[in-house]
Design a protein that fits this description.
Structural class: alpha+beta
Order of helices and strands: HEHEEHEEEEEHHEEHHEEEEHEHHHHH
Bound molecules: acetyl coenzyme *A
Radius of gyration: 25 Å
Largest sheet: 7 strands, mixed
Helix content: 25-40%
Distance between the termini: 65 Å
CATH architecture of the largest domain: 3-Layer(aba) Sandwich
Number of strands: 15
CATH topology of the largest domain: Aminopeptidase
């Protein structure tokens, strides 16, 4: 017979289910998409086990349009406390990652309240189609209350799907600064599944924030410090120039691998290019998958520009290696640095990422 510790231990990644739902007929709920988390260690601990239940099912439902959450917990048997050992308090544990409305009654009723009239918060910044379906990217400031509520509802997905993903502490955000901009991707159905449902269904989102970019005040000085207001005296007259940093970026599993991540990335990037006060786009702690997405998209944009500018290595790299043994070879003798700097500034790409792109381009030229 299995020891109680084994019998009453369940794998949290299997026991937790996420469901994007819509109102159905007769006050029933229609599940649009269902998937399991990739990581649960930030919530239940390193072993990703939930102790104290047999046949446990933890369903975290989200209204597909406004992402109102609701937690549904069922189990066959709960472990009775023995000594100091007791079953994990699931409501309390999940309560650290979800807003209080997730544990309230009446979700079915709330789900259909004004759903048909609902549109995403912010403004629509891009529309595209994939597989004959329509999608929209909406963007707005985190100062906008409906957008903030939506981010608060959904942030649990950041810890469930991004390794080391960090919450935005909405209590700590300085609301006197309009620093954060949120981008949302929605599928827009031409015909919602029921007359009660909203045509908008959540696909993914990204959060971004700005940093001041200090201008060079000395020969080699170029620092970045967190956006602060009012600006300190050190900042030069071009103080408005800033960097945009992508903080959190997530496409939900049912929509991954269909180009939605690229569409979201490009929508953010287009806004960066169009905004004269943003001089560079950076990414906070990118995952390997995100690096790949970023490389593919940046390379597609830069490759024709490198070609048009006839970027190539000026002299044999091997000759340079020989010379480098005696004396460091300045990059300027190997590459057309002026041309590259012009391309980088125009495309507002961070220097390290730009160097990767140049390297990829030069490697692709080797016959
Ligand atoms: N049809 C089919 N496939 C396509 C299409 C299309 N129209 N367009 C692109 N693809 C392919 C791409 O070529 C790419 O292929 P590859 O994997 O073989 O290179 C693949 O689909 C992925 O590209 P996208 O579909 O554009 O990316 P996706 O929508 O899957 O998003 C992301 C990628 C964001 C990493 C997503 O998988 C995700 O959210 N993962 C979990 C969370 C995460 O890691 N987030 C990033 C953390 S870093 C941060 O937050 C700053």
């Amino acid at each position: 017979m299995a020891a109680p510790s084994e019998e009453f231990s369940v794998n949290a990644n299997e026991a937790i289910r996420i469901a994007l739902v819509q109102p159905g007929p007769n006050h029933r709920i229609l599940t649009r998409h269902e998937f399991h988390p990739q990581f649960t260690y930030p919530i239940v601990g390193e072993a990703e086990q939930i102790f104290g239940y047999k046949g446990l099912d933890v369903e975290i439902q989200f209204a597909a349009h406004d992402l109102r959450p609701h937690v549904n917990i069922t189990y066959e048997k709960k472990f009775q406390t023995i000594g100091t050992t007791s079953a994990l308090d699931l409501n309390k544990t999940l309560g650290n990652f979800l807003p209080p409305i997730a544990f309230q009654q009446g979700f079915e009723k709330e789900l259909q309240k004004d759903a048909t009239k609902w549109t995403p918060p912010g403004v629509c910044v891009n529309k595209y189609t994939r597989g004959g379906q329509s999608y929209e990217v909406w963007a707005g400031s985190l100062l906008d209350a409906p957008l903030r509520a939506l981010v608060d509802n959904i942030q649990i997905l950041i810890v469930l799907f991004i390794e080391g993903g960090q919450f935005i502490n909405l209590d700590d955000v300085d609301w006197t600064l309009d620093r954060w901009r949120v981008y949302l991707v929605y599928h827009k159905s031409s015909e919602p599944p029921t007359p009660l449902a909203c045509p908008y269904s959540f696909v993914g989102y990204a959060t971004t924030y700005r940093f001041y970019k200090f201008q060079k005040t000395g020969p080699e000085r170029e620092d970045v410090t967190p956006f602060s207001f009012p600006p300190s005296e050190e900042i030069t007259p071009t103080k408005l120039s800033s960097r945009l940093r992508i903080s959190q970026f997530l496409i939900t599993p049912p929509y991954q691998q269909h180009g939605h991540g690229s569409a979201l990335y490009q929508a953010i990037y287009d806004e960066v290019l169009a905004d004269p006060t943003i001089v560079e786009m950076t990414v906070e702690d990118p995952s390997e998958e995100f690096d790949k997405l970023r490389d593919l998209n940046d390379f597609d944009k830069l490759e024709p520009q490198f070609k048009a500018a006839d970027i190539k290595i000026n002299s044999s790299p091997f000759a340079s290696v020989e010379r480098a043994r005696l004396k460091a070879v300045p990059t300027a003798t190997l590459l057309q640095v002026d041309k590259l700097q012009t391309i980088r500034a125009k495309n507002k790409i961070a220097s390290r990422q730009f160097s990767r792109m140049v390297e990829m381009y030069l490697l692709a030229q080797i016959p």
